[in-house]
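Margin note: ligand = zinc ion.
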Amino acid sequence: MYDFACEHCQGMVRERMVAREALRHKGSFVVLEDVPIGVCEKCGARYFDASVVRRVAEIGRGTCPVEKTVEVPVVRFA
Ligand SMILES: [Zn+2]
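Resulting structure:
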């Protein structure tokens, strides 16, 4: 699904299964569990396959059933 050269450093991007990954969606976040993402071996940049991005869009549109919702703390740093 991944195995391509990193666009930042030309390192190899390898697939890694992660238990939880927060992905941006229109100024908010969607959390996917047990999702295969791409991680650059050299610089650690993260990549998301089109199927992962599509799933996030489906959740945003409400066409993919959501299993649970978590609250995230928000603080203004300045
Ligand atoms: Zn890289």
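The chain has one domain: 4-61.
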